[in-house]
Amino acid sequence: MHSAISMNKTEILDAALNEFSEGYFGLSDENRRTLLISLSKEYDLNRTQLRELMKQYLELELRTGDKDVDIVHEEEGSFSAFYRIERNLRHSLKPMYEILFERLNTHPGGLRFLSTMRADILSLLMEENLAPLRALDSYLKEKLITWLSPANLQLHNITWDDPASLLEKIVAYEAVHPISNLLDLKRRLGVGRRCFGYLHPAIPGEPLIFIEVALMKNVAQTIQEVLWDDPPIAESEATCALFYSISSTQPGLSGVNLGKFLIKRVIDVVRKDMPKISTFATLSPIPGYIQWLLSKLASAERSTSTFREMLLKPEEENALLDATKELASGKNGMEVMRNVLSTHHEWVNSTSLREALQIPLTRLCARYLFLEKKRGKALDSVGNFHLQNGAMIGRINWMADRSEKGLKQSAGIMVNYIYKVENIEENAQSYFSKGQIQASSDVMAYIEVIIFHQRTSVVNMICTSLPY
Amino acid sequence: MHSAISMNKTEILDAALNEFSEGYFGLSDENRRTLLISLSKEYDLNRTQLRELMKQYLELELRTGDKDVDIVHEEEGSFSAFYRIERNLRHSLKPMYEILFERLNTHPGGLRFLSTMRADILSLLMEENLAPLRALDSYLKEKLITWLSPANLQLHNITWDDPASLLEKIVAYEAVHPISNLLDLKRRLGVGRRCFGYLHPAIPGEPLIFIEVALMKNVAQTIQEVLWDDPPIAESEATCALFYSISSTQPGLSGVNLGKFLIKRVIDVVRKDMPKISTFATLSPIPGYIQWLLSKLASAERSTSTFREMLLKPEEENALLDATKELASGKNGMEVMRNVLSTHHEWVNSTSLREALQIPLTRLCARYLFLEKKRGKALDSVGNFHLQNGAMIGRINWMADRSEKGLKQSAGIMVNYIYKVENIEENAQSYFSKGQIQASSDVMAYIEVIIFHQRTSVVNMICTSLPY
């Protein structure tokens, strides 16, 4: 195995690349680990050379003076020297494993192999977070981003006429709303539906990512409307294109944001094709909501400070306590809520509980989506994805996905993100640079209530804790 | 115009990119020059930041000791610091114009635009060889090489059934043997012929490069056999695939060696398709031969030293002087030869002159192809192209191309380069690393004569110049 890599350093033999990639697939997890770690450590930079170049560069700097502005006006000679060392520096900052990556990229099947290798690196990193492995991963990711630039990808309208081998991939990789049978697949590719995928010439017959679209009269509020509206409306009546599922087929391409370009391309294609369609929206899951809410509730319960956060309004708490007399207990509304949400979704079958939970869960969901951040970006992964692509938060839909998964992730709530063609770039830009999230007035109404509510509690708490 | 570039620094607006590229096409040559020079100078590196990072890195080096080997075994912390600064260094070594290139690459029509821009940069460099412009060019070239990696290209078998808009491009860009009319084109795409092109998804309907192939019984010795063999042999009888023309359609992709990958792919496709074909060869022009020979002859004439090189053998010189009594004059064979070759190819119509020239011109051509180097690589550009792709010099063909261009470039001589599937990688490797050229025994026979001949002259000359 090691000889297969080292051959790659001196020979350009296709055979060696084949041998290497085939050999790799035959390795046990443990041997793959050994190989990847040795690749990351032993085929790294030549740091001696790098250091040498840096010293040369800094000396050159001293000789030609210290002002960048002047350098521009300097004579050809010293000018060229800067460019030359800079070029050499770029070169010497390339790790040796770059050679292997580059060669595999131009080798038949190599890109797919690199994607597999990256998936392995990612799962290794979950176990042990080693610096050289992290560097290997980030380098490979950069390379994949370059190679999979949208200019190299082909948008393909996937239909029932496509080869079964391709459709099989759609069934296998649909990650959001699993496809139950052939009829379900046929419906998703039939009248009133579209499915678009990005194909790369080097990975034929397998979309790297695909998106499912429903053509509708109005923005759907529940996933049931999308998956079970039989028969669908006539396409000529549609005014809305609803993106209800987006799935990536390559775990090794994690962090390579193909979805952004796919959505933009699909919007362009649909607008050109069906000028009557004026709304582009998603019906999206909120994968992190309940997990976040449960931990918020738990920490509020643990806290004995007077500053402890009141997640429920008094009237919400009362309604909840009334509705849960038999089902769950707890010393206050927040504990009851946590208990209700932690059990096996029995609350869904109780009309009174559903009614008692609707307002607080919707309100807290708006807060989660709009206010909760991690490093300046939306905490929710799906939210972050659409916001960075330029969408806004449109509407929060109660009881929109009653599947086991939907109830567990978000108490059945789903959200419509809206892509307004004229604002996409602007939204993406202000989210990217300032973390600013756009939301509809419906959603903002919940937020304003929260901000107001919090402000008054803070005032109360300050009053309480003053020493008189 | 400048505002269009500077917008690119802060916004991701497609509109700005469109405006920029459309605006560019509307510019005069002089304004394009101004724009490109300002792009190369004002959107360059941030050298202050780069210097800062280098200092940090070298300090880190001091703190953690001087031995690379030890660093590998060091603890996580300092390890991560190296990787972090290296990543930052890579980033800060990217000139600002990288942003523009990257954005244009993902923008519809952007890749074609970049190729136009590079063509402009190249022609500017022919006029004034400015260092920042050279750096801009070499950076853009590297980017294009990455984006146009063979993994992103599709091999297309171009046939008479292709759209006229694509075939039109073939006619327009065929650079080796111009296509005279529709019938000529149809023949080149008909029985016994193939034409393959590389298409990029971002430049649809226009191959970046294409190659024309003739299926033959034997390796053709003259281009007439290829272009006018009507009717062609039955394809089932073919044992040889002859590459008789390879043309690039994008001057902006100069230096991006797509031809190498195209030839390899075409060999693979033809072998799979027609297992009877065992020989892959070219019939290639020798664009630099006569120019080289004329300057050799001129410098031999000018030289008064006893070391002056004898380019003709005595018997060749006599035969030439006999044959040129009426047509050309000169004080010796070399001067006569130069005069004959400098005139308007009248010698081709004289049987005696053709006979007198055949041996020396063929012999000197073998020397030119096999021995004449520039920076360790074959001096002839077409030769260098095929040798770096792994071919060998097969046969030198007298009176192989009597067109005006053929006579001017190489006195009508053409050469067959042979691609032996089993040696391609090995040849490419030894040419790349050692400048070693492989040639058939036929060609080597001429070389041995030359080496022997030169050796004896040197011996003679040494004897002559010794002081006794």
Automatic annotation (TrEMBL), chains A, B:
Molecular function in Gene Ontology: malonyl-CoA decarboxylase activity
InterPro entries referenced in this protein's UniProt entry, alphabetically: Malonyl_CoA_deC, Malonyl_CoA_deC_C, Malonyl_CoA_deC_C_sf, MCD_N, MCD_N_sf
CC terms in the record's Gene Ontology section: mitochondrial matrix; peroxisomal matrix
Residue stretches making up the Malonyl-CoA decarboxylase C-terminal domain: 152-420
Domain of life: Eukaryota
A Pfam family reported for this protein in Swiss-Prot or TrEMBL: MCD
Gene3D superfamilies xrefs: Malonyl-CoA decarboxylase, catalytic domain, Malonyl-CoA decarboxylase, oligemerization domain
Protein name: Malonyl-CoA decarboxylase, mitochondrial-like
GO biological process: acetyl-CoA biosynthetic process; fatty acid biosynthetic process; malonyl-CoA catabolic process
UniProt domain Malonyl-CoA decarboxylase N-terminal: residue ranges: 84-147
Organism field: Dorcoceras hygrometricum
